[in-house]
Design goal:
The chain is an alpha/beta fold. Helices cover about 35% and strands about 10% of the residues. The mean pLDDT is about 95.
C-alpha cells in the first residue's frame, strides 16, 4: 500500500481505538487522529488519546470541542450514575449510550477527510464484546459509508470511493488484546473506564472496565492498568 495515503482515525484514548490506529499505521497510512472533547464526564481519555497519538506516530492529532452535555441523555454526558456490576452487558441499550455519538463523530471525520484529501476513515467500533450500542453495528457502518459517498464534494468529483474501516467489528476483546500486543501497543497508555477516580484510576466495575478485563483474561495476559483490590 502507498505509504503516502492519508487516513482519518477516530481516537478516543481507549484500548480499541489505539489498536485501530496501530492497524492503520501498519497498513501504511499516514494517520490524522481525531478526538472529541464532547462534554464527557472526565478528561482522562483525552489525555490518553494524546499519549497514544504521539506514541503510535499519528501525522496529526485534532481535538474538537463539542458540547453534547447540552443534549444530555447519557450517563457519560449528564449527571446520571454510571451502571456498575451489570450481569446483562450486551442486552438492551444501557444509559451510557450517547445519543447519535458515532454519527456525529463520523460526520466530523468525513469533513476532516475531505480537507486532508483522505479516502479512508478508521473507527474502533465492536459488535461482539460490547455494551449494546446501536451505532457500533456493522450494518450501521455500511449504511453510513453509503451515505458518505453521496454527500461530499470529494465523492462527486472523484471516482475513488470513501471507505470506512472498522477492523475490530467482528473481533472479541481477547482478539483485540492479542492484535494490539502483536502490533506493539502499550495498553498502559490507554484509558477505558467510564467512571474513574480523580487521578484517573479505573473503577473495575463499569461495562468498559468489565469488558476490558475480560479481554485480557481470555487472552491470557494481564491488563497493565491498576484496579481497586
Amino acid at each position: 500500500m502507498n505509504s503516502e495515503k492519508t487516513a482519518v482515525v477516530l481516537l478516543s484514548g481507549g484500548m480499541d481505538s489505539a489498536v485501530v490506529l496501530a492497524i492503520a499505521r501498519g497498513a501504511g497510512f499516514a494517520c490524522e487522529a481525531l478526538s472529541f472533547d464532547y462534554g464527557q464526564r472526565h478528561r482522562h481519555e483525552l489525555e490518553a488519546a494524546r499519549r497514544v497519538a504521539a506514541a503510535l506516530g499519528a501525522k496529526g492529532h485534532t481535538v474538537l470541542p463539542i458540547d453534547m452535555r447540552a443534549i444530555g441523555g447519557s450517563a457519560l454526558t449528564a449527571d446520571i450514575d454510571v451502571p456498575k456490576d451489570r450481569d446483562d452487558i450486551g442486552e438492551g441499550i444501557p444509559i451510557t449510550y450517547v445519543p447519535a455519538r458515532n454519527t456525529i463523530f463520523l460526520s466530523y471525520a468525513l469533513a476532516l477527510a475531505e480537507v486532508k484529501g483522505a479516502r479512508d476513515i478508521f473507527i474502533g467500533v465492536n459488535a461482539l464484546d460490547y455494551s449494546g450500542y446501536p451505532d457500533c453495528r456493522p450494518e450501521y457502518i455500511a449504511a453510513y459509508e453509503r451515505m458518505a459517498n453521496l454527500a461530499t464534494k470529494a465523492s462527486v468529483e472523484s471516482e475513488a470511493a470513501l471507505k470506512i474501516h472498522s477492523p475490530l467489528s467482528e473481533m472479541r476483546k481477547a482478539d483485540i488484546v492479542r492484535e494490539g500486543a502483536e502490533l506493539g501497543v502499550d495498553f498502559a497508555m490507554t484509558h477505558s473506564c467510564y467512571d474513574p477516580d480523580a487521578e484517573g484510576g479505573s473503577c473495575g466495575r463499569c461495562d468498559a472496565c468489565v469488558l476490558r478485563l475480560k479481554g485480557f483474561e481470555e487472552a491470557g495476559m494481564t491488563d497493565p492498568l491498576p484496579y481497586p483490590a
